[in-house]
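Predict the holo structure. Ligand: zinc ion.
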Amino acid sequence: MAATYFVQECPTCGRNLQVRVDYMGKRVVCQHCKAKFEACDPTSAAYPPMESSLSLLARADQLIESASRSGLSTMSRTAI
Ligand SMILES: [Zn+2]
């Protein structure tokens, strides 16, 4: 189950740490130097965690909804 962990370099001591994906976006402690930092998978830009992608989708839906209400002609003009 390689997907359960991702590797992140500790910003303080530079060692590679295996961080559980559960801790992504949360504060974790380096097991080597005890430094606290925020867990963030560098590959997560392509594959965002489910929560943030859901909220992004919800935000996009809101934007589309408000755009289609107030500016449908603007949107179709932009598309052309
Ligand atoms: Zn460290």
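Strands lie at 5-9, 16-20, 27-29, 36-38. Residues 10, 12-13, 15, 30, 32-33, 35 surround zinc ion (CB under 6 Å).
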